[in-house]
Amino acid sequence: MEPVFTLSYSEFSAAQQLSRYFPVAKGYSLYVPLSRQEKGVDLILAERVRGRTRTAAIQVKSSRTYSRRGPRTRATRPFSYYTWFNRFDTPSNADFVLLVAVYPSDVARSSRKLATWWSPLVMVFSTEEMRSFLKSVRTVGGKPDRQFGFGFDLPSAVFQTRGDQRREYQDFSSHILEKRARRIRHFLLDK
Fold first, then answer.
1. What is the pTM (predicted TM-score) of this model?
2. Which of 2, 40, 42, 86 could be cross-linked to 60 through a Cys-Cys bond (beta carbons 3.0 to 4.6 Å apart)?
């Protein structure tokens, strides 16, 4: 009997998206810790330059994606998709935290590029940014909220829908992987 190693779909999806921005042809590699008890590290992104390896430890958190139901109301800002994350302790071992949500994209359905109807939304936070963000996650009454979430129609425009005390729909579009890949590259260069 051969041992089987499994990877959660959210971690696989995050790795798949990371490999688009950090290809092997440019000296990058992605690794998965063999021990599932490795606290705070789900993936390791490595770059090999002139005989030296630089790494970034990555924690992946996932959410189900919910579609809007019912008619639009004036009281809420309607989005096609919503995420819902449980609050967590920011891992001290991770350099970055990726928030991953998979949604049924209409664009993916009509595109021949993708082999599936499902598309990933990947948001990137440094450990310090995530720690600061989680401290700010509050209910309308000002108490720490146990959950937080984001809403979006397209993965290029993401807004906080839960966990913002003022319910201002703060724009988190700058945290999508496409816009944060450069920041990860700089992190690796600075190591």
1. 0.88
2. 42
